[in-house]
Design goal:
Structural class of chain B: alpha/beta
Strand order of the largest sheet of chain B: 6-7-8-3-9-10
Radius of gyration of chain C: 20 Å
Membrane topology (chain C): Multi-pass membrane protein
InterPro entries (chain C): ABC_transp_permease, LivM-like
CATH class of the largest domain in chain B: Alpha Beta
Protein name (chain C): Branched-chain amino acid ABC transporter permease
Number of domains of chain B: 2
Strand order of the largest sheet of chain C: 1-2
Number of strands of chain C: 2
Order of helices and strands of chain B: EEEHEEHEHHHHEHEHEEHH
Main location (chain C): membrane
Number of domains of chain C: 1
Largest sheet of chain C: 2 strands, antiparallel
Number of helices of chain B: 10
CATH architecture of the largest domain in chain B: 3-Layer(aba) Sandwich
Distance between the termini of chain C: 53 Å
Oligomer: heterotrimer
Shape of chain B: globular
Strand content of chain C: under 5%
Number of helices of chain C: 14
Subcellular location (chain C): Cell membrane
Number of strands of chain B: 10
Helix content of chain B: 25-40%
CATH superfamily of the largest domain in chain B: P-loop containing nucleotide triphosphate hydrolases
Largest sheet of chain B: 6 strands, mixed
Shape of chain C: globular
CATH topology of the largest domain in chain B: Rossmann fold
């Protein structure tokens, strides 16, 4: 069977959006030292914020997408204040935070469903006509998705390497024993982590909604894939998350050539489990 | 066996990524001794400690205990062979009582297997009785009997250190590895711990290996001291010999000026 | 009156099945500190296994290809064993790592199993599901008394799981599990093979969830993938946390409360015309309940109790008084 490059292209499109969301997840995991199970819902919220601005308020799509970012960030910060900060202050363990985020995930997902119903929705945007370039079909929207993702990844790279804040974040995220415990200005770093993490995730939600549809379960459905990307890339490593997201996206889409499309998540899952079996000591972080 | 030391460490190597933490380290712990392992920060003491106790796999070299090679074995086999370690920060089980903390230390307990547990308490009553007797006896010995039914997290720090040593004794070890047992203690408590260690060595025929950063703390208690720097043994001998060794003085001076 | 009795019986039966689920999760999380976020996977495997083992061979019109027509008892035992095997497979890559990895992998496995249920028609009947599942002693018990009989069966299962949980907790085995939960590295330092203990606890809890699934299959008599969503895991967790993790009585109490809450809110739409927002509103409340409990009452309604030496003596019967 000849390999169809179309699958690879689809993989790059899906993978770059997953990568964006995974950067947020891995930074929060690394810096706040807990896995945020509500991360997928931030993605959903971003998509719905843009949807409301675009479809209900009639704003142009690009404006709506930009508006979605501060809304999602504000929500994430408010939720952190109300839900996570009190636990952090009391020195609750990572597992309390994790279970709390699990509860938060249920609340957000169902709140979205209550307000907008579970019907899939679409953005009001043109550019859906596929054009053929070098034997593969791609729409203008899809080109935009890849370009936006790449630009954002480069921006994140600059932020993490050229600013004091970024360097501190990277150092904190990659060393879990250092996370939060070392104490200098940590709440400020926490705030910025949410801003960057939720902002990127909101854009990922908008782009994924653009590529497919917007629905209340979209973020939860991607949680597994995002986790797989984070684990593949190494916890707390934003570059790893980019690479992990792209690889998982490509692996999933290419797998469609061989197995039923409904098993796409199983591909991410299998990669994750194989990795856990193969390199567990690397995943536990460096020991001393 | 070349020596009749209880523990022989030969040419031990351990790397983390590209960094060499332990680089051909040698040491001997004589039976029924209190031996110290000291060195400046970053010398590799902790890595050696963790490798002997089975928490790290070495990348080279040999650890021989009581004539049996234990290099790279899992912790449960090393404990069975007769080496039990403690932690610098006295890690007791916080939500369990002092007594239960000790009972967990019992090794080879039938009641810790799933099948006898399923069969019911009668299937392991004998082992449990032995564990209870042993624990009570140790509580008396370490003067913790009054605290018996208190939760471990309500103990004072000195008591937690004693509890941890008592819990290590529950495993019937031949060699106890102590990780900075005096760290974080006021001086009167330090004296207490030293007294206990000496008493246990004498009355219960135990051997101790103490890892310590500060040389003065263990000068008086150790029969023999090994000093390491940059992953290597730089001196070993009696406290007197080590104290006057040029390389040791240099290593510690270097640290002070840094 | 009779209608109400029948309603109460069905609520109690479902609550009992959730109590078994919660007792299983309590062994995982409450006793051992294992973050299992895919509890529904064991439940589903137990249910589908007993269904496949006990339904008659398929006719030409049916989607599934296997049906062994075995006795219900064989089916239930098979369901438990299958759930235990899933626990082993899930445990191998995760139980040597930090707690978070089990959470991630278990939630993933549950999701993938749901896809398998929906897509593998030959095995699970696909979206249409499996139906016509036999009920134990169907011809023997008079139909009007059958629901009571089944409730009795479920209560028996709850009783057995409760008794076994207690036996584990009070044994030296349970003591080691708690030591792992408290400080795994310290437990390792005492020579405990903690991976083996975690695995055993994981299997025991998984088998209990499998039993709950088998009981559900023979109660519902039909299985469809939609009945095995992540919400089952959520509800079990909420029940355990609210009731008191680490306490078997708390697990049962919590499961009972959460099912009572679910059933009680079922009739709100008719009363207040709230229509179809009730299912989502209910889950929002349940999620809020988790957050509030973790924040203000992390030990739940029935906190785990410290065990004194006197209790040990009584239970191990070597007369320590």
């Amino acid at each position: 069977m000849a390999f169809d490059p179309q699958f690879l292209l689809n993989g790059v499109i899906v993978g770059s959006t997953i990568a964006l969301a995974a950067i947020g997840l891995t930074l929060i995991f690394g810096i706040l030292d807990f896995i945020n199970f509500a991360h997928g819902e931030y993605l959903t919220l971003g998509a719905y914020a843009a949807l409301v601005a675009n479809v209900a308020l009639g704003l142009p799509f690009v404006v709506a997408a930009v508006v979605a970012i501060p809304i999602t960030v504000a929500l994430a910060l408010a939720l952190d204040r109300v839900v996570f900060y009190p636990l952090r202050r009391e020195g609750a363990g990572a597992l309390s935070l994790l279970i709390t985020s699990f509860g938060l995930s249920i609340i957000l997902r169902n709140a979205v469903e209550m307000v907008w119903s579970s019907d899939p929705r679409r953005f009001d945007v043109g550019g859906a006509e596929a054009m053929a370039i070098a034997g593969v079909r791609i729409t203008a929207v899809q080109i935009a998705i890849v370009v936006v993702s790449l630009v954002l990844m480069i921006a994140i790279h600059l932020l993490l390497t050229r600013t004091t804040l970024g360097v501190t974040m990277r150092a904190t995220a990659s060393n879990r024993s250092l996370a939060l415990s070392s104490g200098v200005n940590t709440e400020r770093i926490v705030t910025w982590t949410w801003v960057i993490g939720a902002g990127l995730t909101a854009i990922a939600g908008v782009l994924i909604g653009l590529n497919t549809v917007v629905r209340p379960s979209m973020g939860f459905g991607l949680l597994l894939v995002m986790f797989a990307a984070v684990i593949l890339g190494g916890i707390g490593d934003p570059y790893g998350a980019m690479l992990g997201g792209l690889s998982i996206g490509i692996a999933q889409e290419v797998s469609v050539a061989f197995i039923s499309a409904s098993y796409k998540p199983a591909v991410a899952f299998t990669i994750m489990v194989v990795l856990l079996l193969w390199k567990p000591e690397g995943l536990r972080g460096a020991d001393t | 066996m070349s020596d009749d030391g209880l523990l022989e460490v030969r040419d031990l190597n351990k790397y983390f990524g590209g960094v060499t933490a332990v680089d051909g380290f040698d040491m001997t712990v004589e039976r029924n001794s209190i031996t110290g392992l000291i060195g400046p920060n970053g010398a590799g003491k902790t890595t050696v400690f963790r490798t002997i106790s089975g928490f790290h796999d070495p990348d080279g070299g040999k650890v021989v205990f009581d004539g049996e090679e234990i290099t790279g074995k899992p912790v449960y086999e090393i404990v069975e062979a007769g080496i039990t370690r403690t932690f610098q920060e006295a890690r007791t089980f916080p939500e369990m009582t002092v007594f239960e903390n000790l009972l967990v230390g019992k090794t080879g307990h039938r009641g810790e297997k799933l099948l006898p547990t399923t069969a019911g308490p009668k299937a392991y009553a004998e082992d449990e009785r032995a564990a209870v007797e042993h624990a009570d006896q140790l509580l008396g010995y370490m003067e913790l009997a009054e605290k018996r039914d208190q939760r471990a997290d309500r103990l004072a720090v000195g008591e937690r250190k004693l509890l941890e040593i008592a819990r290590a004794l529950m495993t019937n070890p031949d060699l106890i590895l102590l990780d900075e047992p005096m760290a974080g203690l006021p001086s009167d408590l330090t004296t207490d711990i030293v007294d206990y260690i000496e008493r246990i060595r004498e009355e219960r025929d135990q051997t101790f290996l103490i890892v310590e950063h500060d040389m003065d703390t263990i000068m008086n208690i150790c029969d023999s001291i090994t000093v390491m720097e940059a992953g290597q043994t730089i001196a070993s001998g009696t406290p007197e010999e080590v104290r006057n060794d040029e390389r040791v003085v240099e290593a510690y001076l270097g640290e002070e000026s840094a | 009156m009779l209608e109400q009795l029948s309603f109460m019986t069905s609520v109690a039966t479902v609550a009992g099945i959730y109590a078994v689920l919660a007792l299983g999760l309590n062994i995982h999380w409450g006793e051992t500190g294992l973050l299992n976020f895919g509890h529904v996977a064991f439940f589903a495997v137990g249910a589908y296994t007993t269904a496949i083992l006990t339904i008659p061979s398929p006719t030409a019109t049916q989607a599934y290809s296997f049906g062994f027509g075995l006795p219900v008892v064989v089916g239930i035992v098979g369901g438990c064993i299958a759930a235990g095997l899933v626990a082993v497979l899930l445990g191998i890559p995760t139980l040597q790592l930090d707690e978070e990895y089990l959470a991630i992998v278990s939630i993933g496995l549950a999701e993938i199993l749901r896809h398998v249920m929906m897509n593998e028609n030959w095995l699970t009947g696909g979206v249409a599901g499996l139906y016509g599942i036999d009920r134990p002693l169907r011809g023997v018990i008079p139909p009007e008394a059958y629901d009571f009989f089944y409730l009795g069966l479920v209560v028996l299962a709850v009783g057995l799981c409760y008794a076994y949980s207690r036996r584990l907790k009070q044994s030296p085995f349970g003591r080691v599990l708690r030591s792992i939960r408290d400080d795994e590295e310290a437990s390792i330092a005492l020579g405990k093979h903690t991976f083996r203990y975690r695995m055993q606890a994981f299997v025991v809890g998984g088998v209990m969830a499998g039993l709950a699934g088998a009981l559900w299959a023979h109660y519902a008599t039909a299985l469809t993938p939609t009945a095995f969503g992540a919400n089952i895991t959520f509800l079990t967790w909420v029940g355990l946390i609210v009731g008191g993790s680490g306490n078997s009585k708390g697990a049962i109490l919590g499961a009972g409360l959460i099912i009572a809450f679910r059933e009680a809110t079922r009739y709100l739409p008719d009363l207040y015309g709230l229509g179809d927002i009730i299912p989502t509103l209910r889950l929002i409340l349940v999620g809020a309940l988790v957050i509030v409990t973790i924040r203000y009452r992390p030990d739940g309604l029935l906190p785990e109790r410290d065990i004194s030496y006197a209790e040990y003596c009584k239970r191990v019967e070597y007369g320590g008084e």
